[in-house]
Design brief:
Largest sheet: 4 strands, mixed
Order of helices and strands: HHHHEEHEE
Radius of gyration: 42 Å
Strand order of the largest sheet: 2-1-4-3
Helix content: over 70%
Strand content: 5-15%
Bound molecules: zinc ion
Length: 246
Amino acid sequence: MKASPQSQLRLLELADLDAELTRLDHRKHGLPEIAELAGMEARAGELKDALVVTETELSDLAREQGRAERDVDQVRTRIDRDRARLDAGQVSAARELASLQSEIESLRRRQGDLEEVVLELMERRESLDTRLDELTAERERLSADMTAVAARRDAAISEIDEQAGKASSQREGVAAEVPADLLKLYEQIRDTRGVGAAMLRAGRCEGCHLTLNTVDLNQIRAAAPDEVVRCEECRRILVRTPESGL
Ligand SMILES: [Zn+2]
């Protein structure tokens, strides 16, 4: 293939811009904020689950406490009724009296037990309330942090997009000055090798970083300036410049 030395030099500009675009793309996808947000989202999911569990436990406990308190009330009512009977002197037979007194005793014990249950339930609710507050506070902090990180990510992305936009339009301009057949070859090599053209600098291919052997160098020396030469190692287009060491 033939192309003017100026067109060949354009390929180096193109390769620089392509490298810049690749670098920007990597930076965009590898932004630390992306990984940070993923970690935060995972934590937010854990918090959401923990909140559901805690809220369910709390409503179960509230129901249980309500039941225990109603039991206490019932027992208390019965004690009051028994006591009223005693106080009114309605019971006179000794056996009946003893039985009523023993019932009151046993009801009091039962009341004591139930009140202990209520107390225990209240303590458990208190510690769950504390946990709920902690989880809620963490969720709020996390949500604010996530908003901040997402804003940083978006700012970084729009800065990268802006740079990529500039590089893309520059690239269009440079590509427009490269003959179609040479551009096609460059694109084909770029598709398979990532980089389509490299400078020959001091006898070394800047694409694969290998020093050319004497035979290849002599062939390139002998080639006309408008001959498009390729690296024998990596097959990239080798662009000659005054720094090529020829
Ligand atoms: Zn090479």
